[in-house]
Each structure stands twice: as C-alpha cells, then as structure tokens.
Structure to design on (459 residues):
C-alpha cells in the first residue's frame, strides 16, 4: 500500500489526510501537540457564517479518528528524512505523554486533584491549566497529558486515577521510530502569532489591557477563560470602550514584514460584532486601520453589514504609541489618512479601556527545523514555505514529492486552507499512482499527465 506523510494536524492536514484515504492511500498524520485541530479548535465562531468553529471542525476530526487508513502520530515531530522521491523514509521522535493511552478514560479525576496551575497555551496564556490536563474540553484524543516539566511529583494523580493510567517518569520516555516507503509528504504545519513585543510602541505585555486578537477570540469564546465575556486584565471589568488596532506585524516594510496577514480584517470585525451583540450600547468599538482587505466570497458584505448594524467607528489612520495619560488611562493619538476626514480633524486622541492588537501570522515554530531537515528554501515573504516555481503552479512541489499547504505557505482563512489541502492531497495521490505503475519514480509528479491521459482515453 502506498503511504503519504502529512505533517501537522490542523484543518489543512486533516483535510489532506481525509482526501487521501478516500483514494485508498495510507496516511500518517503527524502532530506535535497533544490534540488535533490546530488553531481552528481555539476559535469561537468563524467568519463569514458565524458558525461555531467546533462544529465546523468536529465532524472532520471524528472522521480522522474513525478511518482505519489514517494513523495518527500524536506528540510527534520529524527529526530526519532519507531516501528519494517516491520512496522516502522519515525519522520521528514521539514525546512521552506519561499516560497509558489504552487505560485513560478522559474522566479528568487526576486534573481535579492536581495542585499545580500553569498558564494555558490553549487559552493563549490567559487562563490556567493543571500539570495533568486535557488541552481543552472536547479535545481529540479525549485523554489527558502529564506535563513533566511542571509536575511536582506529589503523587495525587497516581492515587486518584480509577484506571491506574498515570505513568511515572521512568515508565515512559521519548521514542524514536521510522516510517519507510513514503511516496510523498505534505507539510501543513500552519502558523504562529506574530509577537507584538517586537514593536515597543504597542506596549504588549507591559500594559495589562493591551491584548492580541487571539486572546480576544479566546475571551469571547463560550468555553474560554472568561466564559465568553470580554474583560480587562487589569481589574476584570468589562470594558466600555475597545480599540482594535489593525496590521500589527503586517504590511510593514520597516520590520521586514511586507505581507498582509489576510485574515485580521475579518477576525477583527467578527469579534467586534460579538462584543456589540453582547454589550450593545454599553460598549463603544473603534477600529484603527489603513484599509480593509476582505477579499473572500461574502466577506465585504459581512463587513459592511456589521459596521452598519452596530455603528462601529472606523478610522483610516496611522496610530501612534499607546501611552498612559491622565488618571492612568490608556491613550492613543492617531493621525487620520483619509483626505476629507483629515482636513476636518487630522489628529484624534482616544482613551480606550481595552486595546486589541490584530497580530499577524508567522510560520509555526517547527517550520525552521523542518526546512533544515528537508533542505527547503524559505526565502519568500515572512519565511513561509514556497510551493511551486511559478504563479501557474501554486500547489507545485517544493522538492519532488514534497508539498506544502495551508497557513504554512502564507496567512490564509479556513476556506483557502481547505482548497490548498485538497490540491496538495491530489498531487500526492497522483504521485502514488505513478509509483504504483513503477514509472519514473525519480520524479513522481512528472507522471501526472500520463495517468490523466489514461483516464481520458479509457472513457
Ligand atoms: C484570532 C484569529 C481568528 C481567526 N478566525 C477565523 C475565522 O473566523 N474564519 C477563518 O476562516 N479563519 C480564521 N482564522 C484563521 C485560521 O486560524 C487559519 O486559517 C487556520 O487555522 C489555518 O489552518 P492550518 O491547519 O493551516 O494551520 P494551524 O491551525 O496552525 O494548524 C497547524 C497544525 O500543525 C501542527 N504543527 C506545527 N508544526 C509542526 C511540526 N513541526 N510537526 C508536527 N505538527 C506540527 C500544529 O500543532 C497544528 O496542530 C483566524 C485566525 C486568528 C489568529
């Protein structure tokens, strides 16, 4: 049986895996974290339909679990690759979970008794989790993980677990293993958030009431750390005025990030809408931007409808630094750039209770290591993977038999990730057909036209 390795189990990797198994290809879906779903699992609603993100992704996640053709390699990263196109061998390292996965029932009795609390990565550092925990309620796989770095070995979880599923440090360890005879590899490692601390004017993490778009998203999610309420981190109060600052770490040549992060305009308006739906006239929402980029189907209409329904103030401007003003209130001075408005009042001073920074996308943490291992050039915008050699080949191989898709290639919304995942899966499937025929295994993608021709003449 032909095999394809898909690295990264966010929405892109999941979609690619599901498409491949439909064509009878065995898939190894490799995920470095303790759950699958990637960033989509962290979202509340999704634009432009406002459907629940969990509903959008959960059926696909369950299809992955149910399909015998997909082998999930959790908490696993690629450490090496050898071989040639059509027949790669990858070396992997599996981190220890310190849990007997066969015995854990996911009841979380261990979590309840654990005395250690650390910041929750899933809640973007806003909430806390225990040292033995499920990444989030409803996480897949639905079992816990023991974080040995923070565990104080008090032994309470060992005694509490009704199934004796918690393992001692000595009973589990990192494991190296190999998967051979891999025809193609799809890199779907996604993104990480740009760190606004790179630009001191935003005062991120030095002023408590300056948060990122992802933190705002977690707060407004019903299962988030504040139960769906938008709150100031300084005093826990619901803000009366919020300013959303666009293009943080995007479209800024001065910091070497010329590219547009493509989803920030949309996720900002989505969250502005949720805040207005919740608090109505008790909250005043202002968006500071240079322009709106809402390019998808129905996006512009979604944007316009929300702005009109809720009377959201939008200022086309250059925002200055965030400072403390009188009475220790945050203050932002902005310079308008729209000619007609600037002629009347060129400078405006805002005093928001909360500032939300629309931080852009960067390649995911593991991308650099993978690029080194696979000798991949990341010289494109922002260090994302660069598939295809021309504009006419946007899903072309990076190396023969190696493809990249989704937010690992560039900032993208879910729709575009799915499209690219399907295209990469199809390219990888065609590779497997080529090697099945035993033709031109050195360059499997070259075989695509031959297969196509066969299908056409066979009709
Ligand atoms: C605040 C915010 C709100 C958003 N709202 C919306 C919305 O409403 N609608 C919409 O369409 N889009 C939205 N998006 C964009 C959406 O999050 C992305 O389009 C989507 O998550 C990209 O999916 P992906 O699978 O390519 O990447 P990811 O979601 O980043 O998944 C990548 C996966 O790969 C894993 N991985 C990374 N490196 C490795 C490695 N070396 N080895 C193994 N595994 C690895 C990661 O752990 C992760 O599971 C939003 C984004 C943000 C920041």
């Amino acid at each position: 049986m032909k095999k394809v390795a898909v690295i990264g189990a966010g929405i892109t990797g999941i979609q690619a895996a599901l498409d491949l198994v439909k064509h009878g290809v065995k898939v190894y879906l490799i995920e470095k974290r303790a759950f699958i779903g990637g960033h989509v699992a962290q979202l509340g609603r999704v634009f432009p339909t406002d459907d629940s993100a969990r509903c959008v992704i959960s059926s696909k996640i369950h299809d992955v679990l149910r399909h015998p053709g997909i082998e999930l390699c959790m908490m696993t990263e690629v450490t090496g690759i050898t071989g040639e196109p059509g027949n790669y061998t990858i070396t992997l390292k599996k981190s220890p979970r310190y849990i007997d996965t066969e015995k854990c029932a996911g009841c979380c009795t261990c979590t309840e008794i654990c005395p250690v609390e650390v910041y929750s990565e899933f809640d973007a550092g806003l909430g806390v989790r225990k040292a033995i925990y499920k990444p989030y309620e409803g996480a897949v796989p639905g079992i816990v993980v023991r974080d040995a770095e923070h565990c104080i070995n008090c032994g309470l979880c060992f005694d509490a677990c009704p199934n004796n599923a918690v393992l001692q440090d000595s009973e589990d360890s990192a494991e190296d293993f190999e998967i051979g005879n891999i025809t193609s590899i799809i890199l779907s490692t996604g993104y990480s958030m740009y760190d606004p601390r790179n630009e001191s004017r935003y005062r991120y993490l030095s002023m408590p009431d300056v948060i990122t778009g992802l933190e705002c998203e977690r707060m407004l999610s019903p299962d988030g750390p504040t139960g769906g309420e938008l709150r100031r981190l300084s005093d826990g109060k619901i803000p009366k005025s919020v300013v959303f600052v666009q293009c943080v770490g995007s479209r800024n040549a001065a910091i070497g990030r010329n590219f547009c992060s493509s989803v920030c305009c949309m996720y900002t308006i989505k969250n502005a809408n949720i805040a207005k739906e919740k608090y109505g006239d008790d909250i005043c929402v202002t968006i500071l931007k240079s322009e709106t980029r809402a390019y998808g189907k129905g996006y512009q209409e979604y944007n316009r409808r929300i702005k009109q329904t809720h009377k959201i103030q939008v200022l086309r401007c250059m925002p200055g630094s965030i400072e403390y003003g009188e009475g220790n209130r945050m203050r932002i001075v902005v310079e308008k750039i729209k000619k007609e408005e600037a002629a009347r009042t060129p400078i405006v001073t805002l005093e928001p209770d909360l500032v939300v920074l629309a931080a852009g996308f960067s390649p995911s943490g593991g991308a650099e290591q993978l690029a080194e291992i696979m000798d991949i050039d990341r010289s494109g915008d922002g260090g994302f993977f660069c598939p295809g050699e021309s504009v006419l080949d946007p899903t072309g191989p990076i190396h023969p038999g190696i493809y990249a898709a989704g937010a690992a290639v560039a900032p993208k919304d879910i729709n575009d990730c799915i499209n690219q995942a399907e295209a990469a899966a199809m390219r990888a499937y065609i590779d497997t057909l080529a090697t099945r025929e035993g033709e031109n295994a050195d360059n499997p993608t070259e075989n695509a036209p031959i297969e196509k021709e066969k299908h056409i003449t066979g009709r």
User: Anything to note?
Assistant: The two ends are 26 Å apart (CA to CA).
